[in-house]
């Protein structure tokens, strides 16, 4: 009986410690945000929607972190692993769709983010043309399709977003299939 009580007490203590360390969305700092994004992209093997929602909630609570979120996501969109890129693109789309502060950030989309998205679409297209796709062919095509779907959707929702419209026009003018 004592062992069971001790275990319960220890579990409660550990849960309290974890809660104190996480501090919730309102206590999110740029450093913690980057760590959360890293854990959702670089260290993950599949989309963790609970973690994605924590990031979205934090950005809702602290809109000033939207710029840092875009910077972190850009870093992982440029990663050499297609899996990391796919998770970063999925999280980026979730942020854009669910966080009003991201809408303003999208209007000021940094060229590095646009470049990363352009590279994902055009590199996959070029590899297809040369038939030089690596072992990640299915994942790479899934990533390309996701980015095209994201851009198409963002254009509809944010029709006056000049950077996104310019990126779309660049992709279309390159001869890339967008369907």
* Percentage of residues in DSSP E strands: under 5%
- The average pLDDT is 81
Structural class, from secondary structure content?
mainly alpha
Distance between the termini: 64 Å
> Nearest-angstrom radius of gyration?
19 Å
Mass-distribution shape:
globular
Helix content: over 70%
Helix/strand order: HHHHHHHHH
List the uncertain runs. 1-21
How many separate helices? Answer: 9
Give the biggest beta sheet: none
Strand runs, count: 0
Account of the 3D structure:
The protein has nine helices and no strands. It is mainly alpha-helical and 179 residues long. The longest helix is centred in the first third of the chain and has 21 residues. It is globular, with a radius of gyration of 19 Å.
Fold blueprint:
Elements: H1 2-22, H2 30-41, H3 49-61, H4 66-77, H5 82-98, H6 100-107, H7 111-130, H8 137-157, H9 162-173
